[in-house]
Design goal:
11 helices, 2 strands, mainly alpha, 313 residues, 2% strand
């Protein structure tokens, strides 16, 4: 029946999976190719010839992926080597540090070795799973980006080979940058959910709970953006002025609010300070100095990022 032939169904399955602006041209191309290939066989049964051609063309989902330049794998072969390298570095450098911090906190809080061991096991499983999951999500999004050609690792040269018994400093630097942002985010969220500090038999947060009504969100967003851009830098092995501009925005998004709340002395939970300081008042200069340091570090990172982009352009 017209409109419901194998060719019609096949073409429909292909074009519905590609961008709308390509569908008409691809549909015409496919119909012509199928018809010409089937006619060239001069078969006694045109329907059988049509079926054979479609079988040879393969699964329409695969064909659509080729037209749309969209990977069928979660992480394609172009980014997979960078993904594996960064994942190994995170699991062998960051994960042990996070687990060690959790164990120390558990020991100080409960003085129970058994609980510390349990915390270590739980930390390995939960933190490790989070690292794998979020890194996979970031790489999968990069691989599916409309501009993913910028993230292709097609400029590999033998110069990228690390020396024997020596870690590639560029890879380590990118991994440590990702690790630092991820660690800070994890600690901020953890102290909010776990309320780890014990004061008068009550468990309280270290940071001011009121921050979760506003200021903490740009800080977390900026840190997450920094981590994402560092992952992109690791995957692309390049750094352009566009990357540097985005990196500068991410730095400012978290550094400016952080410096402000430090200067306003709204960073720590007042209940935590009252118990921890035991009557001693933190000088205003400490908060002012901390705010200045945050701005200085952010500015230094921005300048370094721009210089790197300029050197590689």
């Amino acid at each position: 029946m017209s409109g419901n032939t194998l060719t019609d169904r096949y073409v429909h399955e292909v074009v519905r999976r590609i961008p709308a602006d390509q569908r008409s041209d691809v549909a015409d191309e496919l119909r012509t190719t199928i018809a010409d290939t089937a006619d060239a066989r001069d078969a006694a049964d045109p329907a059988a010839a049509e079926r054979e051609v479609l079988i040879e063309m393969g699964d329409p989902i695969r064909l659509a992926a080729k037209y749309a330049d969209r990977p069928l794998a979660l992480i394609g072969p172009d980014l997979y080597p960078a993904y594996i390298r960064l994942l190994k570095l995170l699991l062998t450098t960051v994960l042990p540090v996070v687990v060690a911090v959790l164990v120390v906190i558990e020991v100080l809080d409960t003085n129970d070795v058994g609980a510390a061991i349990g915390s270590a096991i739980g930390g390995v499983l939960t933190v490790g799973a989070q690292m794998i999951a979020w890194l996979t999500v970031v790489f999968a999004l990069i691989d599916r980006s409309r501009h993913r050609e910028l993230a292709m690792v097609d400029n590999w040269t033998p110069d990228d080979l690390p020396d024997l018994r020596q870690t590639d400093k560029r890879d380590s630097g990118a991994a440590l940058a990702v690790a630092w942002s991820a660690l800070v985010i994890a600690l901020i969220v953890w102290q909010h959910t776990a309320a780890p500090y014990r004061a008068d038999n009550d468990r309280i947060e270290v940071l001011d709970p009121d921050l979760w009504s506003g200021w903490i969100w740009p800080i977390l967003a900026g840190l997450a953006a920094n981590a994402t851009l560092d992952v992109i830098r690791f995957a692309t092995r390049s750094w352009t002025m566009v990357h540097a501009a985005l990196y500068a925005v991410a730095q400012l998004v978290y550094a400016l609010p952080l410096a402000w709340i430090l200067w306003q002395q709204k960073f720590f939970n007042p209940a935590f300070l009252a118990d921890f300081n035991n009557g001693w008042t933190t000088p205003d200069a400490v908060y002012t100095g901390a705010a200045v340091i945050v701005l200085f570090v952010a500015g230094s990172e921005i300048v370094s990022s721009v210089r790197t982009a300029r050197d590689r352009s």
